[in-house]
Amino acid sequence: MKFSTRDRYALRLMVELANRGPGEPLSLKSVSDRQGISQKYLEQIVTPLSRAGLVSSSRGSQGGYRLTRPANEITAGDILRAIEGDLVPIPCLASQAETCPRRPQCHTIGFWDGLRQVIDRYVDGITLEQLRTMKADDLPLPELE
Amino acid sequence: MKFSTRDRYALRLMVELANRGPGEPLSLKSVSDRQGISQKYLEQIVTPLSRAGLVSSSRGSQGGYRLTRPANEITAGDILRAIEGDLVPIPCLASQAETCPRRPQCHTIGFWDGLRQVIDRYVDGITLEQLRTMKADDLPLPELE
DNA sequence: ACCATTCCAACCGAAATTGCAGGAAAGGGG
DNA sequence: CCCCTTTCCTGCAATTTCGGTTGGAATGGT
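Structure tokens for the assembled complex are given below, as produced in the milestone run.
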């Protein structure tokens, strides 16, 4: 049960973009330099973010990527789902999954679905703006104090 | 971000054991028959549960496994941690991880640590007894109603 | 002695992960 | 108009993880 490097890098990439003003685009080259992630790998990561409509791009010199919405209207959940698809802990719960024949007798599906909800609520409750302004050891536990 | 079949099967295996009285052991053969998981694979799964002290075994005819504690004193977290080790969403947070050089400037570590805590609280709040008595579409969201 | 069971260790194919390489297309600045 | 920067697209490849299977040894009840 681990999130992939793509998930982690996507968050860091988006934080970089959030640090930029809304107008001017930021190139992957500069993100690569500052975050120590190869430019080529960043290209792979930004593609689904672009397809999900979270960022837009400009080509050519002085080009790059920028957020399509203000950072406080983008959640960590938006970003992770753009990379991962459904954010489900087990395949059974994916929206396109065929229903398990063992489902009616299953004692654990409720547990997993509860976990899914807990994760959803957490990631949807944290905005990119919160991430951007967060220091290294801050803990953003909203309603859990 | 998925939990493995081992995690899922471990829960189902433990529910089967919880359905048994505390005295008499249940063989993997019968679990295999009822749950449709190969006996050999179950052997792999029960081993870490045994090493973690959640179950004990008797060999030979009429042998099998039984819980070492009552089902309401074992949590889903106990079971998953026995299989997975640390229940951390990213390697950075593992107890044996060397500290990332980028740590002081990292804007996302707090997010991930918060997620870890949310997951921990959930899985540690659900007991094997709750799982056992849970029907297919029950949702065990304790304090979240 | 037999048989059911746990225990132990190796192996194995398929899939996912984590990238890298090589361009083609587009756009701005000189 | 040419060059440079950048995005965009495709393919590949090494490594690890996943999801088991296989084979057998040790143990213990009957």
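Chain B has one domain: 5-133. Chain B is about 45% helix and 5% strand. Further analysis is deferred to the final report.
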